[in-house]
Specification:
single chain
């Protein structure tokens, strides 16, 4: 199983950015998918999750109304649209695939929000 996150970069406060996670080696449509992030010196934290049934999502309070998680099961790809970015959103963003008995993590992508 491979989960490859991409799309990170350096942006300014207030900017938008979309990160993606390409999945392979698993039946993508049967997994709930999530985004987590880890800032320097901090523990990894939950950002958002989307169920294997499209349309069911849940967000951390810190990103609610700014971030949108989505998935394209035909492309085996997970997305995170991030708007109104803040310096405190700076972190490595990781995608996660989970279902009963299985839990996979990918390599992260760095997002830096700085003026």
């Amino acid at each position: 199983v491979q989960l490859q996150a991409s799309g990170g970069g350096l942006v300014q406060p207030g900017d938008s950015l979309r990160v993606s996670c390409a999945a392979s080696g698993l039946t993508f449509s049967t997994y709930a998918m999530g985004w987590f992030r880890q800032a320097p010196g901090k523990e990894r934290e939950f950002v958002a999750v989307i169920s294997w049934v499209p349309g069911s999502t849940y967000y951390a309070d810190s990103v609610k109304d700014r971030f949108t998680i989505s998935r394209d099961n035909a492309k085996n790809t997970l997305y995170l649209q991030m708007n109104s970015l803040k310096p405190e959103d700076t972190a490595v963003y990781y995608c996660n695939a989970i279902r009963s008995g299985y839990d996979y993590w990918g390599m992260g992508t760095q997002v830096t929000v700085s003026s």
